[in-house]
Amino acid sequence: MKRVVLYPFNKITQGLVRFRDLLDVEIVSVIDFVQEDGQDAGEQVDGKHAGILIHRSMEEGLNGADTLILNDPGTTFGGNKGVFAEHDLAGLWRELVMYASDRGIKMVSVHEIYDRDTLSWMAEQQLKIEVVHSPREHLLQEIDERYSTCKTDIERYLEQFEQEALMFSRPRTIKRVGIFATRGCIGKFTVQMNLYRKFLARGIPVTAFITEPTGFLFRQPEGDIFKFLAHRPLQQYPYYIDSVIHQAERSGSEWIIMAGQSSILPTMNIAFNSLRYAMLRTFDPEFVLLIAGYDDDEHIHDAIEILRIYSRRPLALLLPDKMETSYGQYEIYPQEQRTARKLELERKFQTHVLFIEQVEETMNLILEAANAVSAGSGM
Description:
By secondary structure, this protein is an alpha/beta fold. It folds into two domains: 3-131, 3-Layer(aba) Sandwich (Rossmann fold); 137-377, P-loop containing nucleotide triphosphate hydrolases (Rossmann fold), CATH 3.40.50.300. It contains 16 helices and 14 strands. It has helices at 11-18, 41-46, 58-62, 81-87, 89-102, 116-125, 137-147, 153-158, 160-169, 188-201, 225-229, 237-250, 270-283, 297-310, 335-349, 359-377, and strands spanning 3-7, 26-31, 53-55, 67-70, 106-109, 130-131, 175-181, 206-209, 255-259, 287-291, 316-319, 322-326, 329-332, 352-355. The strands form three sheets. The chain has a six-stranded parallel beta sheet with strand order 3-2-1-4-5-6. A six-stranded parallel beta sheet has the order 8-9-7-10-11-14, sandwiched between helices. Strands 12-13 form a two-stranded antiparallel ribbon. β5 (106-109), α6 and β6 form a beta-alpha-beta unit. It is globular, with a radius of gyration of 21 Å.
């Protein structure tokens, strides 16, 4: 896997284009059946020319590539049902997969493919799509050895307090940054990877714990829930996070940066809410950043309270430059509105407020806070 084509031009693809300098592979093009043909992907992501064109043509898009990376699993998810139906994207996904297979191009899906009709169709066509299961085997083995997971559900439930006491008793020296938000699709991954890149540039040993399904492409530990569930039950996910932290520590990292999934606020999915707070408690970030929307004052207040109760009050609020209004559609905010909102948030919440693109300032704020903690503890 050296020269790759990405499909489609969704937020996962945009993240890979934005941080392509951190990848092991070369992105040669993007295929998308909705976007205007011939656009430069880099210009669409951050206004900078990248020489990576968006193609509607499968032939043009796959020309010169050895691998097709599928950044959606061929079925609707994440609020894209209307777009899928309007453009028959499920059918076009299958056409693309067949076209690539017929030409001997390797296919990799970043998502677990779970739809039964899609799996049946793949079996009928004898298609091979590789799903890179990022939870690393040695980390799963560590979970088994440390937490005695090979027991009945009742035994695991009864031992839960013991197991969690064991987990929290293990000392940690690695500094932990957690990035959360008042809503989804608001820039958590962008902030995480910008900070990761900036720490690397400063020569500071750092690990990015990536909860998007693309961690393997950045050679970083991944925490995608669906991929984890392909290996282990949900209740073991906190143990996996703990193992990731200690693996990063053993590898020499002084910092680990994690971005949460979706909003930090409760949803109608009780299991997901439980997982979110388990993740927060297990990762236990020392330095918290909260990305806030433009009409989210109540949500900001609630998010700060949740973070204060389960972790720590945010070190700073971050303001995005744009927000997704529907699948693939964004509202871009003028600088005057952003500046006014920044001043309003500083006044209302009495905390640091930075723009999402102020990476250097954000990193310096985190490092200053860490130095203050060290000085206070006499280290």
